[in-house]
Each structure stands twice: as C-alpha cells, then as structure tokens.
Amino acid sequence: MELATKQSGGTVTVTIAENRIDSAAAVTFKDAVRAAAQEADDRVVLDLGAVDFVDSSGLGAIIAVMKALPAGMRLDLASLRPPVEKVFRLTRMDSVFRIYPDLETAQADIAQ
Amino acid sequence: MTEPFGDIRLSCLSSEYGVRSLLTRLMPMLPDWGIPDETAMTLEIVLAETLNNVAEHAFSDTDDAFIAVHIVTKDEAICVAVHDQGKPMPGLGLPDGMLPDADVEQSELPEGGFGWFLIRSQTEALEYRRDAAGNHLSYRIPLSTNVQPSGDCCVNFPANNGL
User: Fold this and answer.
1) The predicted structure's pLDDT at residue A109
2) Structure confidence at residue B106 (pLDDT)
3) CA–CA dist A110, A102 (Å, integer)
4) Across the A/B interface, how many CB contacts are shorter than 8 Å?
5) Which helix (H) or strand (E) holds B12?
6) Which of A60, B6, B43, B65 is the most buried (most CB within 10 A)?
7) Is B20 helix (H, G, I), strand (E, B) or coil?
C-alpha cells in the first residue's frame, strides 16, 4: 500500500496513493495506516483524495484502523471522491467519522 | 436522448485480484453506454460485493476458478447475471443484509456485514438459483435518470438476459 505521511503538531496526515481500497488491498491498507498512525499524538487525518473505490472490505479496514487507535485519538477523513462518499453514506458510516471536503479544511479544524 | 445501451459478457478468476481486474475493465465502458455516473457507481459497488462473495465463499478453496458475468441494459435498468460453479449458498438462500448498527460505542463498531446490505438496498429483482450447473445470481439496478424512449426508435433489445 503506497502512502505518504506528514506530521504536524499531534496530527499525522496519511495520504493514500493508490486508487482502490478493496478486498485485495484491505489487509495491507490496515497494516500500513496503523503503522503510520503510531506517530500521532491525538489525531490521524486519512486523505482519500486519490481513492476512486472502497468496497465493504475497505470500509471495514478503515473502521478497524479507527477502532485500533488509542483512547482519545481520532481518525478523521478528508477528500472523499463521489464513489467513496456514496459507500460511507449508504452504510451510515458518514455519521461515525468527521469527513472534511479537503485537507485544507481538515487542517484548519485542528487550529480551533 | 437515446436510451443507454450495452451488453457484455465478462469473466474473472475467483480471487480478489480477479474481481478487481473485472471491475477495472468494465467501468471505463459505462460512460460510452450512456450509463449515468450515479448508476455506474452503484453497479461497481454492488458487483464488487457479489463477486467478492463468490470468490471468498463459493470458491473459498481456489483462486483459479472462473466467475462469469453478463451485464445488459434493458427496460431502464442494468441487468446483472453472475454464474459460478462453486459451492452453493448456505441454506440455498441469500443472507438478510441488515445494516449493522452504527449507533454504538467506537469499540463496538461493525467492521463487516455491509456487503449484503449494499447488494439488497441497491438492487431490484434479486434472485438466486442453484442447479446442476452451479450458482446463478441475478439482479437489476435501475438507471437513476428518467430515460424517455424516443418515439421513432425501432431497435430491438435482446430479450434474453440468461447466461
């Protein structure tokens, strides 16, 4: 799973550089993001701007990453493309995550 | 406006990568068929769930079997038929597909169980049949735009959607 991480304050931003988080990618996605998240103090922002498709296995992997975070640490999502946003909306997981339209908005929310 | 039209048969190997390969071959064709983006997104997610189920459960012991898919537009819907020669559905029926409860503590959130909910909530005429040839699953995904058939159009669409 290709990804890039950026640390700023207590936040780690993880940008996924692959276009599918599907059944074939779910396990490596989960392992890679969990490893990257260990550098965070209070928040992980998952940048999904390059991701065109998430299936139920990919959705489960994103939820698993959030559940594995230490208590008090958040996993927020940014830059969902329409097919990905649709899966979150249909499964009502859009009510579980904070979802930002882009990284700038996600980062601006840190300052508040 | 012309009615969306397409008719294709595809197959893939019974692995996660086989399923991905089929979807990435299919999706670029749909705009040329006149399929609206919203319907194409629905088709991709529902087809991913149905094919991954076959790869994971009907062919739990092999990645080298074939899954056959027939997709045809008909009566303002995309009709999908999936055929495989793997193991039958348990109880010869389809799972309920209830949406897992999201209104729970973070540590209790569901990590699975979304697949059949997505299939059931986004399809019509969902049918499963088991016979000597194997498993047959079929469903319709309505086109999300209201397509008006043009009055002088005389194209005959294929009547048979069977595999």
Assistant:
1) 86
2) 83
3) 13
4) 80
5) strand B7-13
6) A60
7) helix
CA A95 to chain B, closest CA, distance in angstroms equals 8
Instruction: Quick: pLDDT tens for B73-95.
Output: 999 999 999 999 999 999 999 99
Low-confidence ranges of chain B (pLDDT < 50): 146-163
pTM for the structure as a whole: 0.89
Q: Where are the domains of chain B?
A: 7-142
Distance of CA A83 to the CA centre of its chain: 15
Instruction: Report CB contact under 8 Å: B48, A55.
Output: yes
Question: How far is B67 from B64, CA to CA, in rounded Å?
Answer: 10
What single-letter amino acid sits at B140?
Answer: R
Whether A22 and B16 lie within 8 Å, measured CB to CB: yes
Range of the domain at A41: 3-111
Nearest Cα to Cα of residue B88 among B123, B55, B25, B135 = B135
| Fold of domain B7-142 | Heat Shock Protein 90 (3.30.565)
Total tally of structural domains belonging to chain A: 1
- Domain with residue A86: its CATH number is 3.30.750.24
Compute the distance between CA of residue B101 and CA of residue B119 in angstroms, rounded to an integer. Answer: 17
Contact B94, B116 (CB under 8 A): yes
